[in-house]
């Protein structure tokens, strides 16, 4: 795929756009005023691989909590602001790395100008966040359309450009995947600013992951997208994991383990559903790239999964461990998961010297 050319924007210690890798971000769902809870969730997000964290700043008390939240934090923090430009100024004073605003809902041009001046002084980029659910009334004559979303984005871009501000990212989020896709595609031909992509209000972990994989995956495959968020109703750590799975599936990023498993058939004589679930759970703690196969039978196991770094395949009450298609040993069914994890540890630690990464 050919990546869309975008101008790079610095967000704390991360570059978004340009030749930088597609980054993964999430948003806390704690009360930002609760410093301990918010820091705890951010730490969990970072361990899962999150590279940019956004927090809601609904009031001044939340803004005043930001310095304590950011203390010794090693990922960029973005403040999500709505309606009150003074909260944006307070977040900037607190030292955030970026802002997410909708310039049309934080006040008149003079208030937007005040935010832009402060952001420019601190070299803080602004994400123009267009959301299908909150478009300006004059753009809704024909309902929520991709054209209306693009027009809203261009209106806000022009506002910032007229103020001499160009450290801009843009998002065009909708819960309707076709609307979201068309909006991003249309805007991609009109500006060179980096895009934050995602399907907003995607749903629970199950349905939201599917919608996000379709929407985000389609855009990334077309080379559109510089940073992503999978918006799920639930633990935001799941957002990070799903985002990396999407990137891995497209060959864009490799972080953590990738598990492949067969759909099973009548040849399967082990409890593959249980084993696959256990392996997937254990692999969640691994942050190094490794491909792991969990296959139902020896007929297809090493052959179909020979591209995997390591894998298991079932037999009758037992199974085999294989690496790159080469059978290493047989083990009883009840030891398959443990023996597989031992082999993964050997590969990661490089004790064999043939890990193949």
TrEMBL record:
Catalytic activities: (2E)-4-hydroxy-3-methylbut-2-enyl diphosphate + oxidized [flavodoxin] + H2O + 2 H(+) = 2-C-methyl-D-erythritol 2,4-cyclic diphosphate + reduced [flavodoxin]
Pfam family, one: GcpE
Keyword Amino-acid biosynthesis applies: no
EC number: 1.17.7.3
Chain residues that bind [4Fe-4S] cluster: 262, 265, 297, 304
Record-linked InterPro entries: Dihydropteroate_synth-like_sf (IPR011005), IspG_bac (IPR016425), IspG_bac-typ (IPR004588), IspG_C (IPR058579), IspG_TIM (IPR058578), NO2/SO3_Rdtase_4Fe4S_sf (IPR045854)
Cofactor mode of binding and number, as noted: Binds 1 [4Fe-4S] cluster.
Keywords: 4Fe-4S, Iron, Iron-sulfur, Isoprene biosynthesis, Metal-binding, Oxidoreductase
Entry cofactors: [4Fe-4S] cluster
Pathway where this protein functions: Isoprenoid biosynthesis; isopentenyl diphosphate biosynthesis via DXP pathway; isopentenyl diphosphate from 1-deoxy-D-xylulose 5-phosphate: step 5/6
Location of the IspG TIM-barrel domain: 6-243
Source taxon at top rank: Bacteria
Ranges where the IspG C-terminal domain occurs: 258-345
GO biological process, one term: terpenoid biosynthetic process
Gene Ontology terms for molecular function: 4 iron, 4 sulfur cluster binding; 4-hydroxy-3-methylbut-2-en-1-yl diphosphate synthase activity (ferredoxin); 4-hydroxy-3-methylbut-2-enyl-diphosphate synthase activity (flavodoxin); iron ion binding
Entry-linked SUPFAM superfamilies: Dihydropteroate synthetase-like, Nitrite and sulphite reductase 4Fe-4S domain-like
Similarity comment: family membership: Belongs to the IspG family.
Known role: Converts 2C-methyl-D-erythritol 2,4-cyclodiphosphate (ME-2,4cPP) into 1-hydroxy-2-methyl-2-(E)-butenyl 4-diphosphate.
Protein known as: 4-hydroxy-3-methylbut-2-en-1-yl diphosphate synthase (flavodoxin)
């Amino acid at each position: 795929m050919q990546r869309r050319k975008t101008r790079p924007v610095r967000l704390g210690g991360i570059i978004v756009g340009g030749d930088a890798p597609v980054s993964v971000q999430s948003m806390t769902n704690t009360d930002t005023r609760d410093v301990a809870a918010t820091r705890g969730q951010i730490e969990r997000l970072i361990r899962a691989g999150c590279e940019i964290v956004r927090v809601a700043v609904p009031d001044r008390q939340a803004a005043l909590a930001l310095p304590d939240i950011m203390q010794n934090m090693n990922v960029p923090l973005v403040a999500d602001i709505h309606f009150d430009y003074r909260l944006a100024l307070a977040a900037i004073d607190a030292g955030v790395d970026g802002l997410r605003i909708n310039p049309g809902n934080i006040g008149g041009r003079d208030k937007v100008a005040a935010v832009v001046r402060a952001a420019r002084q601190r070299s803080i980029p602004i994400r123009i966040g267009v959301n299908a659910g909150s478009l300006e009334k004059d753009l809704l004559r024909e309902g929520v359309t991709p054209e209306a979303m693009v027009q809203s984005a261009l209106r806000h871009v022009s506002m910032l450009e007229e103020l001499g501000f160009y450290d801009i990212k843009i998002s065009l989020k909708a819960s309707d995947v076709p609307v979201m896709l068309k909006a991003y595609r249309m805007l991609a031909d009109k500006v060179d600013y980096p895009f934050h992509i995602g399907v907003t209000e995607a749903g629970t972990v199950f349905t939201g992951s599917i919608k996000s994989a379709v929407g985000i995956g389609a855009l990334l495959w077309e080379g559109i997208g510089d940073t992503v968020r999978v918006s799920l109703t639930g633990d935001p750590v799941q957002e990070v994991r799903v985002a990396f799975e999407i990137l891995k599936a497209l060959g864009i990023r490799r972080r953590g383990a990738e598990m492949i498993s067969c759909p099973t058939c009548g040849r399967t004589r082990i409890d593959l559903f249980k084993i696959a679930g256990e392996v997937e759970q254990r692999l969640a703690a691994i942050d190094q790239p490794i491909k792991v196969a969990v296959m139902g039978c020896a007929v297809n196991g090493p052959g179909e999964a020979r591209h995997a770094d390591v894998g298991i395949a079932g037999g009758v009450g037992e199974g085999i461990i294989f690496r790159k298609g080469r059978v290493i040993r047989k083990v009883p069914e009840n030891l398959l998961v443990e023996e597989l994890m031992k082999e993964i540890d050997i590969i990661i630690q490089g004790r064999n010297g043939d890990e193949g990464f």
